[in-house]
Structure formats: structure tokens, C-alpha cells
């Protein structure tokens, strides 16, 4: 069972950046029930922090603002994505005759649980990256991608943690090198949203795909293009959690250039002209909703190489 605090004083550190769906179109549904998506994704400096180190036996320690929440969840007792990632990677490496000795893992859980910004998926991806470094091991890219997809549809993109377009169920990834960095506020009313229920309430599952993105790293051009898109999951999520609508209105009133929900919610984001404006918005919103999750952050720019 994971402990309430970190037990690692030194080790390999991996960031687990928040995944932000800047736009998400539902374009179909497979025979097995999985929905086909077309999504514009970026990643933020805000996120969880994972540390791995050699140990006498496997362990998982949880800390951070939402560590206790995760520990209280039945899946937090050893059946979460971090331990699943550890075990799947170990199995794959041992099949190749490689050594995978016990590890201590410490997860600083800074992102809300099940909040539409890929927290668990980012943690799983960070676990894969960190353990490959700790065990000084490599896997072919396709095999690592298969492991990531077994862990969840968002894990392959979280392995990249750079601006991208995701298709299929999330595994078809195309880098977006021209995407600029955005100053952003992440906000969540800390109310759980049922992802299956959000998908069940969709009015339409065969929407057209997203148009081609801007090919230049110009912020205004990207904002204008993103404004023509949407998140198809936002309307049903708003119907389930009215606070999502309230939160979006508050972000818009605070001066955001673009406001939208990420993933299946309930985290929403606002894009601001600069980081100082994002920080000012957080200060203002925190006075109105002191118990909600609010964070000013920056997203990563696309890489040209």
C-alpha cells in the first residue's frame, strides 16, 4: 500500500506534464465501442513529479496536494497506472533477458484526479521514461508504443509530451512543430465527471475531422484557428457538472483570449496574452473560488527538429 509521503531522497526525476486538449472532435466509433477522436494536444509546465530509485523491494509513495486523494482511491493501493506501467515494462524487458531490479517510486500528485488533463496517463508515461533510464534499458519504439497504449489511449501522447495531433483512439500521433507556447490558466471545480457518461450523452459521434493547423508559430494565428474548433465532450460534461459552465464564464471574464474544457473534464483552460496576465487571473479567481484548483502555467512550444 502506498505511503502518505515521499521516501526517496535521491533518484531519477521525471516530470509528468498536464495534457491539454486544445480541441477535440469525436469522428466515429469502432465496433468494440471505442470512440475515434481527432484532437489538438499540448502539454503544460504544470504537472506531477515522479522519482524512481533502486531499492530492496518495490514501493510506491504518494505526496502532493492530491496524493491523499489518490491513496484513498481503491486503485491507489497498488493497482494504478504507475504500478501497471512498472509491471508491463518489467515484463517486456525481462522477456529480452534484461535485469529489472526492485524500485522505489515516489509520486508527487499535483494535478487533480480524473480531471481531463491526463494526470494518470502522464504519470504512467513518466514511469516508463524514468524506469528505462534507471534500468539503463531500451525498447524498440513500436514495442514501447504498444505498452503505452495498453495502459491507456492517452499514454502514447503523454510519452511525447510535446504539441501534437492525435487521431484514432489516441495512438495516431502527428507532431505539431509550429505550435507556439501559450500562457494558460488551468481551472477545475474539483467535481468528478464520469467519462463513460459524457460519451453516452453525445448527440453525434460522426463529426468532421479538424482542419489543417497553422504552419507558422504565430500566436494570434493559432488562437484564431483554435477558435474555429471545439471540444465535442464539453456540452454533455456541462450538463452533468454545471460548474464547468460557470468556470468557463469566469475565465472569459478574467480576460482569456480562448476558453475551453480539456478532455472529458472537468478541467477548463484559458489562454492569456502573457504569463503575468495568467497569474493575475489566478489571483482574481482564487478570491472567488478559494477551494477550486487554479494554476497559472505555460505550455511547451513545438519542436522543429
Automatic annotation (TrEMBL):
Keyword flag Kinase: yes
Pathways per UniProt: Isoprenoid biosynthesis; isopentenyl diphosphate biosynthesis via DXP pathway; isopentenyl diphosphate from 1-deoxy-D-xylulose 5-phosphate: step 3/6
One of the GO BP terms on file: terpenoid biosynthetic process
Start and end residues of each GHMP kinase N-terminal domain: 80-159
Every GHMP kinase C-terminal domain range: 231-288
Keywords (A to Z) from UniProt: ATP-binding, Isoprene biosynthesis, Kinase, Nucleotide-binding, Transferase
Annotated InterPro entries: GHMP_kinase_C_dom (IPR013750), GHMP_kinase_C_sf (IPR036554), GHMP_kinase_N_dom (IPR006204), IspE (IPR004424), Ribosomal_Su5_D2-typ_SF (IPR020568), Ribsml_uS5_D2-typ_fold_subgr (IPR014721)
Binding site for ATP: 112-122
Active site: 19, 154
EC number(s) stated in the UniProt entry for this protein: 2.7.1.148
Catalytic activity: 4-CDP-2-C-methyl-D-erythritol + ATP = 4-CDP-2-C-methyl-D-erythritol 2-phosphate + ADP + H(+)
A Pfam family the protein falls into: GHMP_kinases_C
Transmembrane segments: none
Record GO terms (molecular function): 4-(cytidine 5'-diphospho)-2-C-methyl-D-erythritol kinase activity; ATP binding
Family per similarity comment: Belongs to the GHMP kinase family. IspE subfamily.
Task performed by this protein: Catalyzes the phosphorylation of the position 2 hydroxy group of 4-diphosphocytidyl-2C-methyl-D-erythritol.
Name of the protein described by the UniProt record: 4-diphosphocytidyl-2-C-methyl-D-erythritol kinase
Amino acid at each position: 500500500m502506498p505511503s502518505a509521503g515521499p521516501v526517496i531522497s535521491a533518484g531519477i526525476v521525471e516530470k509528468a506534464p498536464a495534457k491539454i486538449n486544445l480541441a477535440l472532435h469525436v469522428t466515429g466509433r469502432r465496433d468494440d465501442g471505442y470512440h475515434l477522436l481527432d484532437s489538438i494536444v499540448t502539454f503544460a509546465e504544470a504537472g506531477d513529479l515522479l522519482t524512481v530509485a533502486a531499492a530492496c523491494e518495490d514501493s510506491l509513495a504518494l505526496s502532493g496536494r492530491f496524493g491523499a486523494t489518490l491513496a484513498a482511491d481503491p486503485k491507489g493501493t497498488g493497482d494504478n497506472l504507475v504500478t501497471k506501467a512498472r509491471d508491463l515494462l518489467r515484463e517486456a524487458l525481462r522477456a529480452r533477458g534484461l535485469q529489472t531490479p526492485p524500485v522505489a517510486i515516489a509520486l508527487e500528485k499535483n494535478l487533480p484526479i480524473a480531471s481531463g488533463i491526463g494526470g494518470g496517463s502522464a504519470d504512467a508515461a513518466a514511469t516508463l521514461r524514468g524506469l528505462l533510464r534507471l534500468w539503463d534499458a531500451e525498447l524498440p519504439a513500436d514495442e514501447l508504443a504498444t505498452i503505452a497504449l495498453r495502459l491507456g489511449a492517452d499514454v502514447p501522447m503523454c510519452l511525447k509530451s510535446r504539441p501534437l495531433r492525435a487521431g484514432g483512439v489516441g495512438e495516431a500521433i502527428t507532431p505539431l512543430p509550429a505550435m507556439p507556447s501559450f500562457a494558460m490558466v488551468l481551472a477545475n471545480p474539483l467535481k468528478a465527471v464520469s467519462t463513460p457518461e459524457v460519451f453516452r450523452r453525445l448527440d453525434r459521434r460522426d463529426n468532421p475531422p479538424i482542419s489543417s493547423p497553422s504552419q507558422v508559430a504565430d500566436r494570434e494565428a493559432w488562437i484564431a484557428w483554435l477558435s474555429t474548433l471545439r471540444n465535442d465532450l464539453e456540452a454533455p460534461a456541462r450538463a452533468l457538472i454545471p460548474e464547468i459552465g460557470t468556470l468557463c464564464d469566469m475565465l472569459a471574464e478574467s480576460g482569456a483570449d480562448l476558453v475551453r474544457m480539456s478532455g472529458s473534464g472537468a478541467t477548463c483552460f484559458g489562454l492569456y496574452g502573457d504569463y503575468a496576465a495568467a497569474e493575475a487571473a489566478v489571483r482574481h479567481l482564487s478570491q472567488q473560488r478559494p477551494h477550486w484548483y487554479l494554476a497559472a502555467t505555460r505550455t511547451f512550444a513545438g519542436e522543429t527538429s
